[in-house]
Amino acid sequence: MMDIKTNQLSELLMKLYDNAAEAIFFFDRNGKVIAMNDAAQLILNVDVLDRMMVGEANAICLTCKGYTNEQELQTCLSCYMINPKEDFTSFQVYLDTKGKGVIPYAASYQTIDAENGVRVFMLRDLTKQYKTQESLNQKRMMKSVIKAQEDERKRISRELHDSVAQEMLSSLVELRVLKYMNIDEDVLKKVQQTEGSLMRLLDDIRHLSVELRPATLDDLGLEAAFRTHFKWIEKNYGLVVHFAAELESKRYEGEIETVVYRICQEAVFNALKYASTDDIDVRLFEEQGILKLHVTDEGVGFDLNAVHPKGTGLGLYGMRERAELVEGQITIDAELGKGTAIRLEIPVKEEMALENHNRG
Question: How many angstroms separate the CA atoms of 61 and 54, rounded?
């Protein structure tokens, strides 16, 4: 340990007192402030500061909104100012500060000179930590909600495919048998009409099953799921999707594949609804440990700064939210008359990339 002389230590402590970001108060045994640093003065409202300066006892109570104990979030019972002998080396307190309202602080209240009854009260602003924790909790909650949604989508999709669709198919087979029985022309015509209706309904059920959660995404991965989805879009809407995949059948963590699929699905859907274009380019590739998705079109574009963009705007917001869940970034470039480009980048660790992964 370095040998620091008393005068050097005193000088260092004074620098700490003067320059610390923490608010530091010194109280006498009567609760009067005998000193406070600049950081402490900055958080006090003018009237509270004036009362402290003239030596009013317990003036800190004018700004204190209570501390947290085992029973309550904010309380004044067994106050740290009144019961300094209790353990108040680390606790949370709320102060009504100048210009910022009520702020949570990590606090310490200790006796440093028992003979003269001098105590020190130190405060560290917890606002940033609270915001960080809140953001983390929101992200975890969003992950849980989206996972629950995807699990439920998968369950319903399987149910539609394995149960409802199969029952429909069985009904169709039985209906077709009627065509070979001795029935009159009117009945035969009605059977054929019903058969056509059931076929269309079966196609709708199969499509709904795929839209909810394509089995190919879980079983075969992104490339297969995209090719199936784009083929259906071209068949039903006439929008040609030029798809280029450069992953060589590489697989990724399930959450990442789901995010990429949903974002691309939303981007293509938006282009279909608003871009007034006949074709769109989709490129999926990995570069230097980054999984990248580019969705571009040369349609009508839109104004990114518009107060009320075409549509609800929730699609773009949802894409950004999903990207953040896997530490990804999404950029959107759009200009009226010059089309739209959406680029998604997600960092993928080598061990997270699953080659020829077979998902049960």
Answer: 15
